[in-house]
Specification:
Blueprint (H helix, E strand, L loop, with lengths): L13 E7 L3 H12 L5 E11 L2 E14 L2 E11 L2 H8 L4 E9 L1 H13 L4 E4 L3 E4 L8 E6 L4
Parallel strand pairs: 1-4, 5-8
Antiparallel strand pairs: 1-5, 2-3, 3-4, 6-7, 7-8
């Protein structure tokens, strides 16, 4: 069946698949032993994010590994509350949470404006990335990850 559907906004190529997990070490070990995914780059961090007019502070552990042409990101909230990740876990979910796209600051601004015109807002924003309010339809967040301009 041929489709004549065209999107209102063109996205850059897919760069990342993000998963929210409750035990990052167990997931890394399983994926490495079962699928050969790795090596993993693990990083602990502290973050601050804005969502719906509130500021949230939290500690995280992330692990990243190449998964074909994209990066697989595992994300665990260690302390505090990240609205975009904790809400996912609070609903009893674990697993694929978002897909990410690398953008420059200028592309990010243009895409956010274009998407606002299509009725899609920002759910959570940080300096270097933002999550679009897309999970309400289909259950998957879209993330823009800022890269420096060339």
């Amino acid at each position: 069946m041929e489709s004549n559907v065209t999107g209102k906004v063109s996205l850059p190529p897919l760069a990342q698949i993000g998963m929210v997990v409750t035990d990052i070490n167990a997931v890394m070990e399983f994926y490495a032993a079962t699928f050969g995914i790795g090596p993993w780059q693990v990083r602990d961090g502290e973050s601050e994010a804005q969502s719906h007019g509130q500021t949230y502070r939290y500690k995280t552990r992330t692990a990243m590994a190449k998964f074909g042409p994209v990066t697989l990101e595992l994300f665990q909230v260690i302390e505090g509350k990240s609205p975009v990740h904790s809400e996912f876990l609070d609903r009893g979910r674990e697993g694929v949470h978002h897909i990410g796209f690398f953008v420059t600051k200028e592309e990010r601004e243009r895409l956010v404006n274009d998407l606002a015109g299509a009725g899609v807002g920002v759910f959570q924003e940080r300096r270097s990335n933002l999550f679009l309010d897309t999970a309400r339809i289909g259950g998957l967040f879209f993330e823009f990850i800022e890269r420096p301009s060339p």
